User: Which sequence fits this backbone?
């Protein structure tokens, strides 16, 4: 009887998914990015119609090539019969990974976007073009907003696959709840809440038909506005301090960070390492080989009871010299330029290396890598690293100075 009941429930769920697909599949569409010289598609994604005039919501990362290299790439809408129609990018929100396209498709039904707040555990349905296999629907469960993010993201238990990015996730009434944006596999997927799409669509509609298309200059402007909000939360009153060996250091610079710890205590080695790491999940997609908007904090404690001073100094020097600066393509960023000096704060003398690189295309934005090594002991050492991405010089200087001040002896 239990198995029969389960089978009946599954049939009812499948029937509901089929009903929604038949009703709303035409509201969604496939999007492809075409390399102009070859005429071949280089990327695929999904989107959905939101006005009778042919406006389409999708992800920024789906159309990023058009913004980064408009001379090489164009966006197209793929019709159900396989024909294609040109689409123009008319608005972007790079921070929330959204874009609005304008097409000449005027005969398709569209979603009238409105604010929707699902219940925890509510069934939701994602539409999209997984792996370019055609329009599909998958069922999932709403699990609320992610806790450790600066901007809201919806956690959806559903298998959103590559190619479904930019498609709509709807409730059983056919209302758009969010926009498919990312997955971590094992049916762990994420959505941009619909209110962000509503705001961006209003921007697109208010700009008028003669508005200039978005460019990298606008991307840089949005990033600078974002990092002002981002930095304001950092290392403030909500930041926590921890005892780390004989030191006291900062952890969880803001509420949207997640922190982890680990240690290696191999009895065959004459030293021990203890690590503490905090990072964000707010990376902003810019292009295939470039993301930004993240901050990572690392503390590593090295201790010994058996090494003499020269031996420990050699180990400590090697630890400090390890290169953990982020990689980057020459197309996007300059080479690192570094300055080394000794600094002193809270009675702790530290060796400090600050490395900077500039973004080539996005205005006055930089990545920074600050590394500190506490000096003065021959049996214990602290190496602390702060990686910052996509900040103005003033903001990265502010955060670096604050980070240095928050190292002290216990």
Assistant:
């Amino acid at each position: 009887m239990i198995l029969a009941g389960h089978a009946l429930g599954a049939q009812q769920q499948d029937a509901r998914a089929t009903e929604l697909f038949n009703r709303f599949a035409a509201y969604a569409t496939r999007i492809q990015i075409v390399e102009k010289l070859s005429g071949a598609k280089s990327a695929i994604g999904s989107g959905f119609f939101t006005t009778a005039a042919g406006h389409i919501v999708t992800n920024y990362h789906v159309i990023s090539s058009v913004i980064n290299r408009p001379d090489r790439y164009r966006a197209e809408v793929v019709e159900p019969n396989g024909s294609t129609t040109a689409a123009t990018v008319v608005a972007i929100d790079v921070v929330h990974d959204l874009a609005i396209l304008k097409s000449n498709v005027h005969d398709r039904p569209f979603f009238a976007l409105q604010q929707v707040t699902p219940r925890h555990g509510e069934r939701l349905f994602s539409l999209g073009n997984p792996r370019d296999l055609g329009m599909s629907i998958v069922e999932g469960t709403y699990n609320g907003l992610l806790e450790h993010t600066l901007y809201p993201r919806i956690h959806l238990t559903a298998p959103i696959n590559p190619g479904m990015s930019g498609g709509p996730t709807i409730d059983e009434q056919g209302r758009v709840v969010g926009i498919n944006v990312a997955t971590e596999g094992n049916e762990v997927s994420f959505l941009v809440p619909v209110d962000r799409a509503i705001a961006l669509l209003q921007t697109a509609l208010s700009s008028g038909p003669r508005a200039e298309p978005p460019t990298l200059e606008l991307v840089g402007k949005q990033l600078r506005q974002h990092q002002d909000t981002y930095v304001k939360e950092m290392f403030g009153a909500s930041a926590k301090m921890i005892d780390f060996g004989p030191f006291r250091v900062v952890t969880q610079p803001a509420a949207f960070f997640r922190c982890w710890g680990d240690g290696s205590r191999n009895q065959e080695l004459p030293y021990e390492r203890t690590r503490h790491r905090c990072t964000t999940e707010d990376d902003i997609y810019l292009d295939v080989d470039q993301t930004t908007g993240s901050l990572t904090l690392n503390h590593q404690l090295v201790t010994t009871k058996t090494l003499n001073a020269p031996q420990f100094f050699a180990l400590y020097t090697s630890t400090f010299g390890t290169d953990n600066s982020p990689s980057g393509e020459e197309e996007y960023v300059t080479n690192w330029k570094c300055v080394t000096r000794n600094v002193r704060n809270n009675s702790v003398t530290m060796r400090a290396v600050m490395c900077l690189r500039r973004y080539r295309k996005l205005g006055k934005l930089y990545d920074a890598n600050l590394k500190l090594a506490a000096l003065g002991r021959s049996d214990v050492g602290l190496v602390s690293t702060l990686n910052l991405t996509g900040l103005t010089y003033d903001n990265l200087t502010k955060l670096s100075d604050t980070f240095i001040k928050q190292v002290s002896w216990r």
Remarks:
- The longest strand covers residues 380-391.
- Confidence is low (pLDDT under 50) at residues 1-11.
- Residues 302 and 381 are 5 Å apart (CA to CA).
